[in-house]
Give the backbone structure.
Amino acid sequence: MKHMFTLLLLLLLAAACRKSDSIVSDKNNYLLGCWVGPVYADSLVTFTRAQTLPDDGYGIVFQSDQQFIERKNAGWCGTPPITYANYTGNWTLTDSIVDISVPYWGGSADYRWKLLSVDGHTLRIYTIAAEYQ
């Protein structure tokens, strides 16, 4: 009986130490959710998954209803203090190409990104095009 209890305790402990994906919005589509903290290397951008958009920084959200939210500068001035706002647009995914249309303070923006990798914690994209009207 003592060995059975020890085995059960070890089994429960191992299950409790399992890696959690609680921040993943949709395990069937890792792209969905909130992405922040962009790190730029030329046309490559790496984002980190987050629960919410930051109050004072850039971030994006891919929603399951094809809505895209981009939190960015609310005006033309990039000198601190910077005011941020959420802009809602739309997105589509075809193979590994993400097309995004979203307004900004001066008009509208169209992005075309190549999805390099995405998992429960990191999103990596290559910027193919960014056009502003």
Remarks:
- The chain has a mean pLDDT of 85.
- The chain has one domain: 26-132.
